[in-house]
Amino acid sequence: MNRSVTSVIAGSEVTQAPGGLLRSVNPAATSEIVAEVALGDAKAFAAAARAARDAQPAWSDVPAPVRGRAIAYIGRLVEANAEALARLVTREIGKPYAEALGEVREIVDTCDFFLGEGRRLYGQTVPSEMADKQLFTFRNPVGVVAVITAGNFPVAVPSWYLVPALLCGNAVIWKPAEYAAASARALFDLFTRGGGLPDGVLNLVLADGEQTFAGLETALGEGCLDKVGFTGSTKVGARIGELAGRHLQSACLELGGKNPMVIAPSADVDLAVQAALFSGFGTAGQRCTSLGTVIVHDGVREEFTVKLDQATRQAAVGDPFRDVVYGPMLSERFGRRFEEYLSWIQPHHRLLGSTGTGRVTAANPREGFVGDPEAGIFYHPTIVDGLREDDALFREETFGPLIGLMGYRDLDEAIRLANAPGYGLSSSIYTRDPAEVFRFRRGISAGMVSVNNSTSGAEAHLPFGGNGKSGNGSRQSGVWVLDQFTRWQSMNWDYSGSLQKAQMDVAELTADESFRLAD
Ligand code: UN1
């Protein structure tokens, strides 16, 4: 089935394609077109922001518990369409079907968490320093939110923004990754239909990066945007953060990672091997939480390396509708970029994990490949042993099925190496020593720490986000994300009938400071 996908602004489909027509193809079978996508441009983005600006006041007047019901209905509809949505995700970006189902589950989890928040969204009553005066706090929606998301989690990660943003009374313009437009449109339809959202409350704009950036500039300049949320590369995140900053706004940025896994001498090595395999190569290494570098204690390095090499050689790679560890790259663009990372391999590196390196083809086969490698954009898993600190492969995120490996002697060195690339999203330590766990937690710069668990696979109701090159400290998920989509308003109410001046008209108690207990 080949669908055509358009933007939707103020409830109307936009059939014109000023940004051109794009074909979204199945990366596991590139001859199969998943959707024809009509791309908008900067003007369309700015128009969507205006539509959202118009729709927002009435949406924020809908009582929060009623908006919470909309979230409940959305969650139910997503659940009722889970298989169809997961199949579309697998066809469009090549994520193994089991993982795609998990991704859909994450939307439902997010809805489950926030549907009740409509009945909380608590403010506080606060005592005043004066009599007959009361203080209060309220959470106000920020207003209009632009959400720009990547395609590696084409439906779950957007829901981390859309669900709380809508629940809090904001209107939204969502710009998903173009190569995942069909999945995005499906989620958009589930939200608007399932939630019964009035036109303009949620708008979908399909456009490329440059047009989106120009549209953001216009919309911010016109005062039509109050918050920008972005999940994607560090480079683009820095540009968006800078633009938002010029308008005195702080963007919600969820960026790349170079997520370390430390294997301590007391680690359960077999468990650590399973985790490295899943977090290094699951989703073809294309999660922002994917494993970057394994930092393994010299005492267990040999055993770990041999076992990880074996496990990776045996791992099923191929057709994402079959039982595989990973499938293709998200799209041709990601394949090309991965080739560049592979060009950073140096003569001092030892390559492990497969029967070849680079794209899997008939001439460069992967033993045990599941399906036809030539049909799609498949890459060998690559373990690069012997990383050094000045290697580009050590310092930079390498989005794709590649992990680095290096040794360490003591935990301080491991923590230093884990922090050295300057990212700070996720991290992991395998150890049986509680003292090491807490020393690692304290020393690591990452926003997320796993103990005896992989770097990926965060649950949907814990703070998610990073530091350094991974983000500006913003956190998504759970109650913590409410601070992204609301602003605190404080109110004081004086009912004394006189002007009581704070700090000046405050009653004083008289303390006897000279009092001492008798010996
Ligand atoms: C991402 O790659 O942008 O923790 C998000 C995880 C997933 C989310 C990843 N729950 O791996």
Task: Write up what this structure looks like.
- This protein has helices at 42-61, 64-80, 82-93, 97-115, 156-167, 181-195, 209-221, 234-246, 269-281, 298-314, 332-342, 392-395, 411-419, 434-443, 482-485; strands spanning 3-5, 7-9, 12-14, 20-26, 29-39, 125-127, 133-141, 144-148, 171-175, 202-204, 227-231, 252-254, 259-263, 291-297, 350-352, 382-385, 402-408, 426-430, 448-451, 486-494.
- Strands 15-16-17-14-13-18-19 form a 7-stranded mixed beta sheet, sandwiched between helices. Strands 10-9-8-11-12 form a 5-stranded parallel beta sheet, sandwiched between helices.
- With 519 residues, the protein is of the alpha/beta class.
- The model has no long low-confidence stretch (mean pLDDT 97).
- 2-aminohexanedioic acid (UN1) is lined by residues 152-153, 157, 231, 287-289, 456-458.
Fold blueprint:
Elements: E1 3-5, E2 7-9, E3 12-14, E4 20-26, E5 29-39, H1 42-61, H2 64-80, H3 82-93, H4 97-115, E6 125-127, E7 133-141, E8 144-148, H5 156-167, E9 171-175, H6 181-195, E10 202-204, H7 209-221, E11 227-231, H8 234-246, E12 252-254, E13 259-263, H9 269-281, E14 291-297, H10 298-314, H11 332-342, E15 350-352, E16 382-385, H12 392-395, E17 402-408, H13 411-419, E18 426-430, H14 434-443, E19 448-451, H15 482-485, E20 486-494
Parallel strand pairs: 1-5, 8-9, 8-11, 9-10, 11-12, 13-14, 13-18, 14-17, 16-17, 18-19
Antiparallel strand pairs: 2-3, 4-5, 6-7, 7-20, 15-16
This protein binds 2-aminohexanedioic acid (UN1).
2-aminohexanedioic acid binds next to loops.
